[in-house]
């Protein structure tokens, strides 16, 4: 017992043992503690399509850091800084104040880290639930809300640091920004415009995630609508990022809202094709289009002998395919084109080919 009462750097051996033991215990059980808490949260918010390891992977690291910091904080009550070191107290500027404020900052950030990871897990759960519904609105609302909550948590963390660690009156700081706040607002003008534009997109709903849109020279599928920009996947696989303020400032065509897509092209026959053959080809193509199962029957289009060109007899083929998918449109066009070739061959006609005349 005399050994435990001995002093080392003005701390008794028993106090040093307590300090070391609590720190070691925290290191040894931090993983178990984080996994248990993650499983508890998963049981509260579980979803059949979200595996438990997703929750554990998201929360394990921030929970471990938070647990270790609290173990160090608890262990620090068993030791004291030797007076022989002549360090300024925590209340005065010096090494101890720096260490204490750094610890506070780290503790607040670790707690915020946990909240952000919980938010991401909730977003995954609600995203799976949204996938079960027919509406696309919730599919884009979940990631947008997730980003909004994360931004709010980051701002709350920042102001908590100012108020708790640095003892700054946050409310007075915000209300007293004045000219400085105006300067910040001007510097962040484009960011604010994009933010307000994102709210406009959500309220007006000109398109949803998954829709195919035509914007200026960009055509593609909407993958994500964020605070600052919207991501569009083009037909060649490129990912185009367009600022939201530009989307709301110009005309936008939502191709997914179409009931049909039009196919229109010219079939050119040779000039020596008999009139009866031309009439028969026009009638057969029109019949083919009208009775095709994927043609939009409310407005199937029209096939007509359109013009007599310099080198050909031009038949205009125009019809509407009942789809908003460019892939389906191209498949139907290919199928109809094969049958048009058969019709031309059936009437012993030939396609025209370009002829050239040299002018001196």
TrEMBL record:
Record-linked SUPFAM superfamilies: Mechanosensitive channel protein MscS (YggB), C-terminal domain (SSF82689), Mechanosensitive channel protein MscS (YggB), transmembrane region (SSF82861), Sm-like ribonucleoproteins (SSF50182)
Residues passing through the membrane, by range: 16-42, 63-79, 103-126, 147-164, 170-188, 195-215
Bilayer disposition of the protein: Multi-pass membrane protein
Keywords assigned: Cell membrane, Membrane, Transmembrane, Transmembrane helix
Signal sequence, renumbered to the chain: none
Superkingdom, natural source: Bacteria
InterPro entries registered for this protein in UniProt: LSM_dom_sf, MscS_beta-dom_sf, MscS_channel_2nd, MscS_channel_C_sf, MscS_channel_TM-2, YnaI-like
PANTHER family: LOW CONDUCTANCE MECHANOSENSITIVE CHANNEL YNAI (PTHR43634:SF2), OW CONDUCTANCE MECHANOSENSITIVE CHANNEL (PTHR43634)
Annotated protein name in UniProt: Mechanosensitive ion channel family protein
Source organism of this protein record: Flectobacillus longus
Lineage: Bacteria, Pseudomonadati, Bacteroidota, Cytophagia, Cytophagales
